[in-house]
Amino acid sequence: MSKIRITKKFSFETGHALYGYDGKCRNVHGHSYKLSVCVIGEPITDKDNVKFGMVIDFGDLKKIVKAEIVDQFDHATVFNKNTPHVELAEELKNRGHHVILVGYQPTSENMVVDFAKKIQKHLPDHIKLHSLKLQETESSFAEWYASDQ
């Protein structure tokens, strides 16, 4: 049986700031992120299985990514918890804002690595994460490939 890659796209709005950065992105700002999730596996061959012919049901993949990434990061502001931004984060939280503190600089590069770890934990054993593409603008994105790891 052939290995097949399938991809599902997601979008969410997230704010962040890059502490210590020497450009505009040191300021709190946001992006309309687009995340493409590509998994690889063999289509189900059991004709009695309701998922016959599928690598994974797109709906099942959607549930994983929505729960682990989209629902968590959509309309949140992300800060590195190891910087003075933690003070700003606490102030925003006290005012009712959704803030996520991470242990890394919240660049697209680091976020895509974090997302890969979160998604991989929930995939069925016979499905492997192939790649992720996280776009922060129309022309700027970070990619993660399992083969590079």
Automatic annotation (TrEMBL):
Transmembrane segments: none annotated. The keyword Methyltransferase does not apply. The keyword Zinc applies. SUPFAM superfamilies: Tetrahydrobiopterin biosynthesis enzymes-like. GO terms for molecular function: 6-carboxytetrahydropterin synthase activity; metal ion binding. Its EC number is 4.-.-.-. It catalyses: 7,8-dihydroneopterin 3'-triphosphate + H2O = 6-carboxy-5,6,7,8-tetrahydropterin + triphosphate + acetaldehyde + 2 H(+). The active site is at C25 (proton acceptor), H75 (charge relay system), E136 (charge relay system). Its cofactor is Zn(2+). Binds 1 zinc ion per subunit. GO terms for biological process: tRNA queuosine(34) biosynthetic process. Zn(2+) binds at H16, H29, H31. InterPro entries: 6-PTP_synth/QueD, 6-PTP_synth/QueD_sf. Pathway: Purine metabolism; 7-cyano-7-deazaguanine biosynthesis. Keywords: Lyase, Metal-binding, Queuosine biosynthesis, Zinc. Belongs to the PTPS family. QueD subfamily. This is 6-carboxy-5,6,7,8-tetrahydropterin synthase. The lineage of its organism: Bacteria, Pseudomonadati, Bacteroidota, Flavobacteriia, Flavobacteriales.
